[in-house]
Design goal:
By secondary structure, the protein is an all-beta fold. It is built from no helices and ten strands.
C-alpha cells in the first residue's frame, strides 16, 4: 500500500532554510506526480507545490521564488527546499501522491524568532 514518510521539519528563525524530504513506497514512484501541502492551525490544508512525473512544476503564489520542489526517482523521494522562511510558513507539511487520497504523518515547520 502507499506509504509516505515526511521528515526534515523543525524550528527555524525567519529568513532561515529547511529541506523537507518525503520517502515514498507502495507505488511506481517514477510514474506519479507528487505534491507538498501544508496546514496551519485553524486553517484548511493548502497546496504548496507539485511536480509531475515528467517534471512540470507549479507553486502556490505565496512560496514562489522561495521554495523549490524536486524529486529523485532513484530514491523514491520528493523534496521541498524552503528558503527565506517567514512566520506565516509555520504549518504541518505533508507530501501527497497526486490523485491518491493518502497522507503521511506530516512534519512540523515552525518559523519563529
Amino acid at each position: 500500500q502507499v506509504q509516505l514518510v515526511e521528515s526534515g521539519g523543525g524550528l527555524v528563525q525567519p529568513g532561515g532554510s529547511l529541506r523537507l524530504s518525503c520517502a515514498a513506497s507502495g507505488f511506481t514512484f517514477s510514474s506519479a506526480g507528487m505534491s507538498w501541502y501544508r496546514q496551519a492551525p485553524g486553517k484548511e490544508r493548502e497546496l504548496v507545490a507539485k511536480i509531475s512525473a515528467g517534471g512540470t512544476i507549479n507553486y502556490a503564489d505565496s512560496v514562489k521564488g522561495r521554495f523549490t520542489i524536486s524529486r529523485d526517482n532513484a530514491k523514491n523521494a520528493a523534496y521541498l527546499q524552503m528558503n527565506s522562511l517567514k512566520p506565516e510558513d509555520t504549518a504541518v507539511y505533508y507530501c501527497n501522491v497526486i490523485g491518491i487520497a493518502k497522507w503521511g504523518q506530516g512534519t512540523q515547520v515552525t518559523v519563529s524568532s
